[in-house]
Amino acid sequence: MMVYSRQKIEDDDIKAVIEALKSDMLTCGNRVVDFESALCELTGAKFAVAMNSATSALHAAYIALGVGSGDEVITTPITFAATANAAIMCGARIKFADVLLNGNINPASIKELISDKTK
Fold first, then answer.
1. Domain ranges in the chain?
2. How far is it, in rounded angstroms, from Cα 8 to Cα 44?
3. pLDDT tens per residue, range 19-70
4. pTM score
């Protein structure tokens, strides 16, 4: 089996998860506020918003960029489904660009897909 990532999970991580699971506020509350504050401190950002998944984050990013009905989004077909699905959830149409032999999007193929509807 090919390992595609490794996690570093330490005892204090496990303890924090157990504390959250045993608390009254499993999905919101002070832990989220503390995490967002720590993220701002770490990055120097003025604001941070924690999301429940990368799919939700992509959806929020598309909304923040103004992607909506009638727009087009160009992406690679070799990506997680959420890359396209989140744009579709905003009402956009997906255009798939060609890819290079290494699997990355081919920048040259993007140019020919750009239209006045591209976001």
1. 11-43, 54-111
2. 25
3. 989 988 877 788 899 999 999 999 999 999 999 999 999 999 999 999 999 9
4. 0.74
